[in-house]
Amino acid sequence: MDQLERRIEDLEMKLAFQEGTIEELDQQVIKLNDLMAAQQQQLRILITKLQSVEPSNMANQSEESPPPHY
């Protein structure tokens, strides 16, 4: 086998490896995208719940008098 054929074979092997790697990375991106979409939905639900909570009747810290030991 001459050097040119060996170089072509090496390039074909590298290309096959890169194609496999790209496919694996693509699958990971899809999984992460699905996970991010689910987390965004959970965050929207949490924000909605927090916005519907009645405000606390406790005074702000700036309005509180200092504790007796001061």
Structural overview:
This is Protein SlyX homolog. It comes from Shewanella sediminis (strain HAW-EB3). 71% of the residues lie in helices and 0% in strands. It contains 1 helix and no strands. It has 70 residues and is mainly alpha-helical. It has a domain at 24-50. The mean pLDDT is 90. The longest helix has 50 residues, at 3-52.
Q: Which keywords apply here?
A:
70 residues; 0% strand; rod-shaped; SlyX; Protein SlyX homolog
Task: Write the SSE topology.
Layout: H1 3-52
Q: TL;DR of this structure?
A:
This protein is mostly helical and 70 residues long.
Number of strands: 0
**What summary fits the major beta sheet?**
none
Q: How far apart lie the N and C ends?
A: 90 Å
Oligomer: single chain
Uncertain residue segments? none
Mean pLDDT: 90
Number of helices: 1
Q: Structural class of the secondary elements?
A: mainly alpha
Which percent range describes the beta-strand content?
under 5%
SSE order in H/E notation?
Answer: H
Please give the radius of gyration in angstroms. 30 Å
Percent of residues in helical segments?
Answer: over 70%
What general form does the structure show?
Answer: rod-shaped
Organism: Shewanella sediminis (strain HAW-EB3)
Pfam families: SlyX (PF04102)
Family: Belongs to the SlyX family.
Protein name: Protein SlyX homolog
